[in-house]
Design a protein that fits this description.
The strands form five sheets. This protein has a seven-stranded mixed β-sheet, sandwiched between helices. It has 14 helices and 19 strands. The relative contact order is 0.11. It folds into three domains: 83 residues, Translation Initiation Factor Eif1, CATH 3.30.780; 106 residues, PurM-like, N-terminal domain (60s Ribosomal Protein L30, Chain: A, 2-Layer Sandwich), CATH 3.30.1330.10; 163 residues, PurM-like C-terminal domain (Phosphoribosyl-aminoimidazole Synthetase, Chain A, domain 2).
């Protein structure tokens, strides 16, 4: 085989996997497991099968039978898991897209957990600067992050999409490409969903399902006096990324308004200035759910007493833990993890960097508490920092500044009890 044939063969394999991932009319059924060969016998029911693609599939995946619309493959476990076709398909998803319902099966002793996030155009995202692939990825990740915050393992994702007629088929493909990428990276099955027309713009409603052993589930109500308060990664970067995007959007709109004619508007060649700020943009447009932190905690034998993901800002999330656990807290300003780019951008935009870290939101880092006895183990973890400790409830929730003063923590979001509007967080949303 010459080099050209080799390249063509690689392209055929890649197209085959992409084709499987992209088809919405595929139903997967596990027929039997071939343990001796480390493979799974898989049947795909396909409508309107492209014969050229089908031939690629037969060659690449090892097709052992083909009858009408049914194509049977003998697929190795690594290929199955690495293709994005199904992350935990064998054990947890018996049927996915193609029927009226997905059929799920947890392992013995496990329980299911579910979470749903609704994202509305103009409220939660702005398509002026949000690429659809990034948006799809983010919509999936924010759900998966909630499951990690409960110390669960994500298994399935359900995607509901409502869109107006201004979106082309290619736009939908881009959106789902981002969703599928998140599913691949977190070994999650895209098990179903729905698509509808919309008169008000793009709406995304995603539901993530996960499993956990009952004793492993970690909520917000387990923090105890003297527990250490820990947070992963760094804070405030997503908010500064949003601020930069909004700044450049404002400049662009002002230039657009200044153009006197339609020809001048079309000739407008606006180039946003994000040099050296790529990390901040990525943190906002394409956040990551901290699966690595959950795996590191499990490997170290550490079970958090309470945990939550940082979506509405550190202050809001820490107050959630304090209220549910009936405790107070002390966190220290000089221990807040802040990236260098975040600090520079905050100074450039004349913002207090500590305020950005405390109230910015959209970081999707993990905030958790551990017993004081786990101090050395937590200190040894990469990308985890101890920022304070839990106290008795009567001492309140306090921020200790760099000069030793104490201030009460405030949640910068929507007060759903009093219906009074507090300052907004990063995405304009209030607290849940």
């Amino acid at each position: 085989m010459n080099a050209l044939e080799q390249r063509r063969g690689f392209r055929a394999r890649r197209l085959s996997r992409e084709y499987i991932q992209g088809r919405q009319d595929i139903r997967h059924d596990v027929l039997e497991e071939h343990r001796s060969k480390g493979a799974v016998r898989l049947i795909l029911h396909m409508r309107l099968v492209d014969h050229d693609i089908a031939e690629h599939l037969r060659v690449v995946c090892g097709c052992i039978a083909a009858e009408g619309e049914q194509i049977i493959f003998l697929v190795s476990r690594p290929l199955l898991r690495g293709s994005g076709l199904s992350g935990n398909f064998i054990a947890h998803t018996l049927r996915g897209i193609g029927d009226d319902c997905a059929v799920l099966r947890p392992e013995a002793g496990e329980v299911f957990l579910s979470t749903t996030d609704l994202l509305m155009e103009g409220i939660h995202f702005d398509l002026v600067y949000s690429p659809l692939r990034h948006l799809g990825y983010k919509a999936a990740v924010v759900n998966l992050s909630d499951l990690y915050a409960m110390n669960a393992t994500p298994r399935q994702l359900l995607a509901g999409v409502a869109l107006s007629k201004r979106f082309a088929v290619e736009d939908v493909d881009e959106l789902y490409a981002g969703i599928r990428l998140a599913c691949q990276q977190h070994e999650v099955d895209l098990a179903g969903g729905d698509t509808s027309a919309s008169l008000t713009g793009l709406t995304l409603s995603l539901t993530a399902l996960g499993t956990a052993q009952p004793d492993d589930i970690c909520g917000r109500d387990g923090a105890q006096d003297t527990d250490l308060i820990c947070v992963s990664g760094n804070l405030g970067a997503a908010y500064l990324g949003l601020c930069l995007l909004e700044r450049e959007k404002g400049i662009y709109l002002s230039q657009l308004r200044a153009a006197k004619s339609e020809a001048a508007r079309r000739a407008l060649n606006f180039a946003p200035d994000f040099s050296g700020r790529e990390y901040l943009l990525e943190r906002f447009l394409k956040p990551e759910a901290r699966r690595d932190i959950i795996l590191a905690l499990r490997a170290a034998g550490i079970r958090p007493t309470a945990m939550i993901d940082v979506s509405d800002g550190l202050s809001s999330e820490l107050l959630h833990i304090c209220q549910r656990s009936g405790v107070g807290c002390r966190i220290y300003e000089d221990r807040l993890p802040i990236d260098y780019q975040t600090a520079v951008a905050a100074e450039e935009l004349n913002l207090n960097v500590s305020t950005c870290a405390l109230n910015g939101g959209e970081d999707y880092e993990l905030l958790f508490t551990v017993p004081l006895s786990a101090h050395e183990q937590v200190e040894a973890l990469d990308d985890v920092k101890i920022i304070g400790h839990i106290t008795r409830s009567e001492l309140g929730a306090q921020l200790v500044t760099r000069d030793g003063n104490e201030f009460a923590l405030r949640a910068q979001g929507w007060d759903g009890v009093s219906d009074e509007r507090a300052p907004e967080n990063a995405d304009g949303r209030g607290e849940a």
